[in-house]
Amino acid sequence: MGAVFSNDGNRIVSGSSDGTLKVWDATTGTQIGNPLYGHDDSVQSVAFSPDGTRIVSGSEDRTVRIWDVITGTQIGSPLHGHDDYVQSVAFSPDGTRIVSGSDDRTVRIWDVTTGTQISDPLHGHDDYDCVWVSEDRTVRVWDATTGTQIGDPLHGHDECVQSVSFSPDGTRIVSGSLDRTVRIWDATTGTQIGNPLHGHDRHIQSVAFSPDGTSIVSGSYDRTVRIWDATTGFQIGDPLHGHDHYVHSVAFSPDGTRIVSGSYDGTVRIWDATTGTQIGNPLYGHDESVQSVAFSPDGTRIVSGSYDRTVRIWDATIGTQIGDPLHGHDRYVLSVAFSPDGTRIVSGSLDSTVRIWDATTGTQIGDPLHGHDNHVRLVAFSSDGTRIVSGSSDRTVRIWDATTGTQIGDPLPGHDDYVHSVAFSPDGTRIVFRSIDSSEKIWNYTNTPNNNYFLPLISKSKPFQSLYILLLHFV
């Protein structure tokens, strides 16, 4: 159930429900070497080490394994410790630690050099439904060199963790769970920092650190957004009330001064990340649930996609809708994203099409991109804006020329079920996507590398949002 790019963008690794991992050339789309055998059950999560020499994988067989990228062989023995499915694994930004999360409700941190577990498991959460950190309800960190677990599992979750994220500097981990708490962990010692952050009355669906790592934002089924001091763990101000239904998505603006949230109540709201006050009125316009929201690269606009079949662009400063709704899709809009230069928007829909829009005029650019035979679940631009990648319920990932709208090459097949998450690496050389079949696949594409990198961090119930955050901070 996972796939990620290598940091140089040349390779993609994918994990599958058949228990294997495969490495792909991101330029040619061809498989590199033989499948990596070892797991006895579905591979739920995979990740490259920052230097690209190793791969870590987590599986429903309850183990974490480390692989040599060049030889394709397993390094050392399986990392045993979790008592249930391992749903998510990732390297720390400096490559010295591995974190794993499981349905055993613990988070564990491991020293990559010594292979010892750092401190006790991070205990705390009390609810259930699942962090793609692992279905055993734990997060575990493994030594990527020796293959040993660092300290005990991070216990505390009594239910599945819906979302986890590292702080930008990699020193802390934040987790949100169905047990209604947010918890902060020391990524070095594995100890919980302070008490659980109580406040939400229902499942927490999304958590994220601010760009500077000083704050945390969380969104919940209790219809609130909350901001937390990432140092003290105290809630900053009162809950951000306003939404009349589930909060599906939260995100900080690029400069960290604002937060945008999208909800089942059909509204988009902008919040002051310092004071916690709502900026202006709710952004009304959508007639149904808002499924996806995103800031433009310069933070001046917001794009939203909705069940009402429209895409809308908003002025992020004054909160007014810019132009008319972007009509064209015949069914729910499931995903939206800005191009890196902010001039275009791409959308994916239940109508099986991908569409490109002029972000200034709101007009559709060219014809719909046809090819998928089922719902388009997620779309993203490459970092240079020349290509678009889309993932669909037809079990394929497709790459499109963002200028001509033509499909580049054949569909990238291989999944046995719906593709729920796709993304280009910021350097545009890799594509990562995730599927319900519990596999992650990586494909290589050639492009000029840069220092950016993003990967989906996947949560069982929110495959796109949660995992995007986690892998983003680990890579």
Automatic annotation (TrEMBL):
Residue stretches of each WD repeat: 1-34, 36-77, 79-120, 154-195, 197-238, 240-281, 283-315, 326-367, 369-410, 412-444
Domain Bulb-type lectin: 1-112
Gene3D superfamilies according to UniProt: YVTN repeat-like/Quinoprotein amine dehydrogenase
Record-linked InterPro entries: Bulb-type_lectin_dom, Quinoprotein_ADH-like_sf, WD40/YVTN_repeat-like_dom_sf, WD40_PAC1, WD40_repeat_CS, WD40_rpt, WD_LIS1/nudF_dynein_reg
Keywords: Repeat, WD repeat
Pfam families (alphabetical): WD40 (PF00400)
Coiled-coil spans in chain: none
Name of the protein: Bulb-type lectin domain-containing protein
Organism: Collybiopsis luxurians FD-317 M1
